[in-house]
Write a structure and sequence with these properties.
- The protein is an alpha/beta fold and about 240 residues long.
- About 40% of the residues lie in helices and about 15% in strands.
- It has 8 helices and 7 strands; from the N terminus they run βαβαβαβαβαβααβα.
- Strands 3-2-1-4-6-5-7 form a 7-stranded mixed β-sheet, sandwiched between helices.
- The model has no long low-confidence stretch (mean pLDDT about 90).
Amino acid sequence: MTQNKPSLSVVVPVFNERDNVAPLVHEITAALRGVVPFEIVYVDDHSRDDTLDVLRGLKAEVPELRVIHHVTQSGQSTAVRNGVKAARAPWIATLDGDGQNDPADIPRLLAERDSADASTRLFAGWRVNRQDSGSKRWASKWANAIRARMLRDDTPDTGCGIKLFEREAFLELPYFDHMHRYLPALMQRAGYRTVSVPVNHRHRTAGVSKYNNLGRAMVGIRDLRGVAWLIKRGKLTRTEEV
């Protein structure tokens, strides 16, 4: 572990991604060393392969790497939240563990943050050239259209795993399973601005996707109703000390 407190924590949730762990860790260090003081927080969601053993082995050669392990499988949103809770930096970057997000985009998100209004607390990646199957791209386009109509979050791509956000603002948000798919709407509900930033997207080179289109759709419909209810019931009150 690095001795100095980092200014950026990179949180990566993983489940059965043993062949993608080492390449992605090395890409993160290549993108960020000399750019910003950082740490990498991997959260293993009780993988059934040897992902955890691979991560333990990498700790010896990557001093920035920390590893959190779920004793029981809990899902991606819980893994992200536990990684954020464990993080030591005030700003968080997230990446999917499958390697399809490009760590080289993190400095771009940091540059967007540095030039943005102080009220902007989330910088969401936008996969303008998705490298997924046609069925997955179609399902995502359909889901994004419905979400945008219901939530009016002005975000073209909420499913992109690469995001940059303020840790404190994230921990203020209501927590529920699958919340990571609705971060722009939830941040806006909390009174913060959000920005979408075009990023690179890559083919998966190892392993298989842990999700299917029907499963995403069924969960998404239920969650959309819940998030819409949260937004409708939300209330912001300005305060001042006298």
